[in-house]
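Here is a typical protein record:
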Amino acid sequence: MPQDQPFQHSPPTARPKGVEAVVIGRNEGARLQACIASLIPQVDRVIYVDSGSTDGSIAVARALGAEVVALDLAQPFTAARARNAGLALVRADYVQFVDGDCVVAADWVATALAFAASHNQAVVICGRRRERFPDASVYNRLIDAEWNTPVGRALACGGDALMQVSPLRAVGGFDASLIAGEEPDLCLRLARNGAEIWRIDAEMTLHDAAISRLSQWWQRSRRAGHAFAEGAARYGRADERHWVVETRRALLWGAVLPVSAVLFGLLHPAGLALLLAWPLQVLRLTPRLGFAAAGFSVLGKLPEAQGVLGYWWGRLRRNRASLIEYK
């Protein structure tokens, strides 16, 4: 069994003031308990928003002293909807959003607040999110590397971040209709209002992806493709060119290339040689990413393209997309 990788920071000497936490989750079990326990010493209040758990998560959260919001089962669940439900109850100047499968570093909130005090325009502050068990599977290792984003000004954050409440409410919070990519969508709208998004050099959370099967990784990549397509459809013509490149790349490598190879292959077997572009692309990316990451990056264009095409098919049919879950 892989060993946990504890944070190296020591606990803060005093609880920061003016911060409440919003935790979202569904059937997270013991992970939720660890998440809330890591927040209690750091914030004034923990608000847990539950999306239809059947594992006793609500009782666990209440026993730990969290205020619980149980979402109405009659409406579709999205992470954005859950975060907005928690945000509606926040009374503090800052809110720490956390996914229920994460544990927060002991001094993260104090560290983020100290940064905010010296950066007035920093509305969103995130740090290093790590995978709890990166050696449990190749998929966990890939996700851990994905979380290691550059330090400094950023375009977006993930599900864990400290945010100023007033600017967040001024843009209407998260878009509850989005099934994926709601954080970059929010950050784009905040930035248009003059807000800054920062990734600081500090440990923030331990995340438990628990991906052990190719099918889980495939679903996660398909969800990313859906987010790319919807983001590009919304903002692709604006100056930000939001996710236009990612969408085109997914379609080129994950749809146009294989379909072209098959069609030309039907005319002449030599047409299948187009598929050699995949291993050549892996070799090109290997010096920068490593062989495994390069291989999965290229392979991942197939489910990403599936997500892009699925988004547009649903839009043409005017069907609301359902959640794409991987665990």
